[in-house]
Protein: ABC transporter ATP-binding protein
Amino acid sequence: MISVENISKYFNRQTILHDISFSLEKGEILGLLGPNGAGKTTLMRIINHIISADKGHVTYDGKLLKEKHLINIGYLPEERGLYQSMSVEKQIIYLGKLRGLSSTEAKTQMEYWLKRFGIQAWKKKRIEELSKGMAQKVQFICTVLHDPEVLILDEPFSGFDPINIELIRKELLNFKKQGKSIIISTHNMNNVEEICDRAILINEGHKVLEGTVHELRHQFKEGIYKISFVGNMIAFANALWAGYEIIDKEIHGDDAFTIYLKMRQGNKINDLLNTVIDHISITGIEEVLPSMENVFVKSINAQNEIVSE
Structure:
């Protein structure tokens, strides 16, 4: 649906984005990750024609992205921009009309979303009377009111409590089921793991990583396994040799344990099982993959080390 091709942007001779390329497929949720100042918001503004790229271009559904295509895009900026003295109702209808809806269509869609979020009672309130979380819901409604094919969301979970984060997360998954394509910039790595199909990591304007969440977590795995067993802890430890390192343990009772163990020297899980199977009764075993937060931190640290050298 969206293809970003060799985008570069410069401000005052400083490189903000350098030769960034990626694609957003139909029915996909793509995580756009990076530390503050990495260039994520600038990239989103370029896609939405708020600012222009100095190099490269963006296509929509195979065609060069133009103003007429923006009617098919819903954009939630990080800097929320609602008219404080306007009522919720007038605000939503006004922004819906800017996106091509008639007054009747905008009102119908507004009623649907206010009811879906259980906030019909807010309709006559002015924006300035709302809490930050309430205003965030109104802004989200304004973003999706015209039923866009593509959503570009900059920190969509910001300002929400856990209950409302889950509410927005479910709506995004519903949009995905409908075939909509979504780009999310977020610092909430848990939501990246739960809802994103792929992720792109940029740092200091450069693309550092790209892949499915599964691929990225496997790329950074460290050979750590979580093993739960019943038996004698000393017998288990004595059965190991130098090829394994116990890095943590949980005690569940006199003879029940969970061990976090790191493989060394090219050993495989079958080697471990053959080593300890005569000494304990294994109740569970799984490979521990790094979280997306760990992938994020390790990638940024590695990139920064390369730059400093």
